[in-house]
Each structure stands twice: as structure tokens, then as C-alpha cells.
Amino acid sequence: xxxxxxxxxxxxxxxxxxxxxxxxxxxxxxxxxxxxxxxxxxxxxxxxxxxxxxxxxxxxxxxxxxxxxxxxxxxxxxxxxxxxxxxxxxxxxxxxxxxxxxxxxxxxxxxxxxxxxxxxxxxxxxxxxxxxxxxxxxxxxxxxxxx
Amino acid sequence: xxxxxxxxxxxxxxxxxxxxxxxxxxxxxxxxxxxxxxxxxxxxxxxxxxxxxxxxxxxxxxxxxxxxxxxxxxxxxxxxxxxxxxxxxxxxxxxxxxxxxxxxxxxxxxxxxxxxxxxxxxxxxxxxxxxxxxxxxxxxxxxxxxx
Amino acid sequence: xxxxxxxxxxxxxxxxxxxxxxxxxxxxxxxxxxxxxxxxxxxxxxxxxxxxxxxxxxxxxxxxxxxxxxxxxxxxxxxxxxxxxxxxxxxxxxxxxxxxxxxxxxxxxxxxxxxxxxxxxxxxxxxxxxxxxxxxxxxxxxxxxxx
Amino acid sequence: xxxxxxxxxxxxxxxxxxxxxxxxxxxxxxxxxxxxxxxxxxxxxxxxxxxxxxxxxxxxxxxxxxxxxxxxxxxxxxxxxxxxxxxxxxxxxxxxxxxxxxxxxxxxxxxxxxxxxxxxxxxxxxxxxxxxxxxxxxxxxxxxxxx
Lengths: 147, 147, 147, 147
Known about the structure:
Chains A, B, C, D: Residues 53-126 form the Thioesterase domain. 4 copies of one chain form a homotetramer. Chain A is α+β, with helices and mostly antiparallel strands.
């Protein structure tokens, strides 16, 4: 993608940012790896993410996709805490496995001056078929606000 | 709407269903009222719904919209725990007020045999301008599974 | 809505803008009226909008919703030809009547400095039940570019 | 994907279906190839697809994505003319090149009994960066109606 740029943060720096800025939820997630197109992010599924019947709740999958695109954007523009989601959509495709973590594969499709767009495939760890597909748009603050 | 039908459940029955089927989250929400088009639902904003800077988190707003359409559908077809979200989209319009509950105004737009569609406006309690707009589609199980 | 402002263009001015800037499609549409929340727009359904079976095509409904939000935005900020759609979503709820025009009821939900968001209900003329629901986001050019 | 199946139609059969069922628009599109995940579809950009400034119109891109997922679904389930779009969303990422065709890369993510979901990347022919991203859901008629 012509406007995509190389990461400015390492996986370690991204993980530290997550712990520092989102202490309430950082323990739920593990940054698996930075990828050429974005990032792979794991939701460490625990009791609090489940719904009756043992499936992972919709809001938990939404949170995974939302954080995934956020981290993918930050890894490219640096640790700017101010980017905000303006639009998100998610299709729930199959029931996730309750006993397995969820893995999100995030792909940045646009990284413009004002807006960034990414899409996400979510799978139960070890399974080929996606359980959800999502797309999110982030509004990026003007450059003078960036760290 | 020609395929919309009168509620089959009272507000009290809907609240009892919520408490029974979703004990993990029922305390976060209050059913304000059944409306001719759907339902009004309140998120009782607490510390765990907030993000740094004091704003309500995106996943919390998603959860409110998702549950709102679910309850609107159930109020019309009866207490079927098996309806599942197939698609959801949300636009975040303004920063919610941290000190105020969120109110979701849910409107059913379609209640078909297989699919139900609703949209949602979310406002900070007492404010006119919406903080989010959402739409959700639910897949409804075949009639033989209904209560 | 606190950031919504009174129209800057009359219905007549908006219709002239449409004819001047979009001569290819202006004949398909009629501006019914400016409303406190946005605009009502009519698609004058003709043979070229139909699909086999006599229903109005999805792209025709998309075009109606897209133009509707565009005109609602312009009516409030003035005739800026440069606003561009960044995101659009549409739910197809029922089959439209082939013999009837489509009426779009457009509601502006946000009119910010950079982004405008609107939603749309589309009905077959004279029918109560909506045939489609849409939401669109427009990116608004910086103020120095505005007319 | 575990529920994806091998194509039941050849590229030639799919092209003939398109010509037969959608004579109004078939000339605008070329089926490039069936792929393991779906289909690649070309919009042969002509004057009628353009907007002022020489860019391809949003409704034209919507039509490309919509038809692309439709053909991907049909290629796997056989020539069922009755599948209908229930939900579609599109992000417009960059301005397409007016002088170039658009190529849609369609990927089926779910092919269930009732619903099929696909996503689409659209590029100007020969360019790496996508100009649009879309996702669509199709409702599939009950099996007794299938050819």
C-alpha cells in the first residue's frame, strides 16, 4: 500500500504502551507480532468474556477488533493516545470455541493524514474458519498533537 | 411498520428475562420503557465502562446497542434466548459525558421470519445530541425453537 | 443537535446545484423538501433502475441514500462540491414496489469540522414500512476550500 | 474455510448466467477468474461510471462489490437467481484512476445455509493500493428453490 509505512514501534514498545495507557484491559490481550500489513493480536479468553452457552460475547470480539486496529495504527504513527474510532462494523460468522483464545489478524488498508482504515479477521486459535470479520475507521489527530 | 407486532412481554418480564439469562451484565442495564417502535435502554455508567480521559468505552456502547436490539426483538417474539447478532455497525459521533448514564433509543425496522433489523441512537442522559448511532441485524431461530 | 445549523441554501438553490454539478443523474432525483433534520429526496424510478422481477436495484438505492446525505450536508454548509463519502452502509429490509418512486428521509446526526454523518430511511412512495436503512459518513474539506 | 466448497460453475457458465439474467449491466463487467476463495471481477470503466473530476462514482463501485459477492456465492451453490443482498458496507479509501478499469477481489468468508458473507478489495487496474473495501451479506433461499 503506497501510504503504509514501516513500524515506528517494536512489539515490546507497543506492549508497554498498552499496559501503560489501558491498564484495565491490557491483561486480556497479547500482541502476537507486528506484520507487514498490521498486527496479530490475541484475546486471552477468560470467564468474563463468555456468554451463556460458552461462546465468546459480541462486545469482547468488538473490543478485540477495535484494539487491534488501534495498535496497528499506533505502531505506524507512534504512540498517540488520541486516535479515536469513528466507525466500526462487524459480521459474526460462526460461533467461537469457548475453550480457545481468539486471534485477530489486522490489516491496515489506509493510513491517511486524518483517517485510518483497517480490517480484521478473527479466528478461534488453531481453527481455519474465521468467527468474525470487522472493519474500523480511526480519526487521527492533527500532526502537531503527535508525540 | 406492517410486520411489527405488539409486545408479547411486559417491561417487568423483559427485566426478569435479562436478570435470569445474562446475570453477568444485567446489573449494568435498566429497561426504561417499551416504546411503539422498540425499547429504551439505560447503561448505568460505572468505573468499569470508562476509558482514560473519562469517556465511556466503545465496547460498552456496542454492548448497549447490541443488548437494546436484542431486547426489542424479544419483546415482540417472546423470550427466545437463541437469537444471535449477525451484523453490527456503529458510528461514534461525539464524546459521551463520563458522569452521565447512556440512554439507547432502539427502533425495530424489520421483524421478519429469519432476520430482524434495528437501529439505535445513544445519548448521554439529558443531552440532545447523540453520541453514537448503531444498526444491528439478528438472526432469529426457526419457529419450532421458540418458547 | 447542538452542532446542526440552519440551512444556508433554499430548496431551489439545492436543486440548481444538483442540476449544474451532476447533470448525468440530476433528472433521476427530486428534492422534496428541506427538513429540520436534513432533507427528503425522491428517486423517480424508471426502467433503468429496475432489476429482473421488477424491483429497484441495490445500486439505485445506494445512489439515493448517498446523494441524500450529500445534499443534506451541502444545504447546511453551502455548495461545496468537494465533500466525499468515506463510509456507507445499507440494510435492505423489504422488496420495493416497482411501480412506485422511492422516498428517502435523510437525518443529519453529526456535522463536524471534518466529518458529517447522516442516516436514511427509504420507503416506496405511499408505504409506511421502510425498504432500506442506510448510514453514510462524508469527509468535509478544510474551510479554506469552501465556497 | 470449512464450509466453503469447490465451484459448481465454470467461469464460462458464470459469464453466461450474467449475460442471461442481467442483460442491462452484463456488458459493464468481465469475470476475470474464479479463485480458491471467491472470484475476481472487472468493471470496464466507461463514461457513464464517472463523476465530475474524472473519478469513478460511488454507486458504480458499490455495484461492482455487490455483483462480485453475488457471483462468488452463485459459483459455489449453482445458478440461483434468488439470492438477495441484505446488508452492504463500503469504505472509500482513495480516489480511483479515471482512465483505469476497477478490479474487485472477492473473498467468501461464510457460506451457510441461510446467509453468505463476503468481503471485497477494489483496486484501479495495475495499482497496489485499494480504492475501496466492502463487505456484503446475501440471504440464500431455502434449498428447495435451488436449481
